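Page 42, continued from yesterday. The earlier attempt failed because a stray header line got pasted into the input along with the sequence. Redoing it now with the clean sequence only.
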Amino acid sequence: MKRTVLFSILALSTPAFAAPKAVPHKAKPVAAAQRENVVNINEASADQLKLLPGVGATVVEELLAHRTKAPLKCDGLASRVYGISAKKEAALKPFCTESGPTTLTVKMNKDGQPSKTKATTKKERLAGNQ
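This time it went through. Structure tokens are written below.
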């Protein structure tokens, strides 16, 4: 009896049609096709993969070998691909995509800026200092 009365009081004190709680709006991620300066790690050639910061011939070979087994994901590359550390993975993330076209055309450095090419002649080096 006491349980029934207690249940009735709780049921009547709780509004049946409570207003739904507001759900915070989450920003949608930018689609891969809209991003610029990215490399599709699942479709890029070896030369395109070398444009990524800190990626050389050895890491390219590892990436190509792994993606023949299964598609790669940008998150977790450090744990799956030999030669990619967590630090390097963080540097690759802004330039990495899993789908869409490869739009990166110049070699990037670890700071996310285009790499500077060294002048090949003394004349070019001197011209650059002026």
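Notes: The chain is about 35% helix and 5% strand.
Reminder to self: strip header lines before submitting.
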